[in-house]
Amino acid sequence: MSGAAQETSLSDTGQTEKPSLFSDIRQRLFNLPTLLCAATILAALAPGRMATRTKMYSPSAFIAATAFAWAFFQAKFSKKDERQAAKDVGSIVLGFLALWEAVTSKLDLLPFVFVPAPENVFFVYIKDYRLILSGFLRSLFLLLSGFGASLLAGISLGIAVGWTLRLRKAIFPIAKAISTVPAMIYGPYLVVMMPTFTSASIFVIFCGTFWSLFMNMINRVGTIDQRIVNTARILNVKTRVMLFSVILPYTLPRILNELTVSLSISVMTLTVAEMIGADRGMGFYVKRSLDYANYTQAFAGIFFIAVVITLLNTFISLLKKKLVKWSY
Known about the structure:
Layout: H1 3-12, H2 21-29, H3 32-45, H4 60-75, H5 83-106, H6 118-127, H7 129-163, H8 165-179, H9 183-193, H10 197-222, H11 226-234, H12 239-277, H13 282-291, H14 295-323
């Protein structure tokens, strides 16, 4: 059979030739994120104009962060459906790093006091790693305590109230009214009134996420497909089994979808609480840096909080893929 006939035969059967290994490597390496990564690293190694006006630290941490960002987006290339998105997001992130390096360290176009060079910002993670790590562990403890308590209470009480029509009609309007008041408004009051800052922070985080979880669970349970409920009742399912084996699996996909938003709200609430009365933590680190006009450390603290939120949201996404194989 001739080559043209073979190609026609493959086309007729719907088969396509798989890309070669060389083609895959070329797509991974020869793209805009790789070009921007290389340009950023080379720029960081080159001398700049800002060094004549202020002290510049080693660019090793900044180069490592740039390479890590590039490797992270390269890992997304393993999934074909995420390849284009990885290129686009990687280009934006690495393009931002390249632009930041160019307009600050190399060209010195901005006030170095208010917009520090990326070399100095990322060097903070080497210089203050003990303080940053200690604050992260403290913040993580408060976050998991408050967010975990709100998650447990919001899901369990939401299922109970949503399942009982009378409770749903009586409690939902009250919860809706209370949820409109952000926890950050009465957060300073709680910090002053509670016996310790730890208990105040946990309670503020709890209030910041409980009401939205509680209301969403009530709505989700109240709008469940009645065919599912009727089928379970025909099988003479007990109430406990109905709630935890029917209702909870039905609401689980929605719960995990909303966790990323709730988690972001929890981190924001915790950061505000730490800025008010803490003596350590991620928010305290940023607040102290701003009080002393150390914007280099403030930038480092803000970036660190953003990375923590991203990693926590990634963990939730992985958890969803492992726990939930269904959706409604």
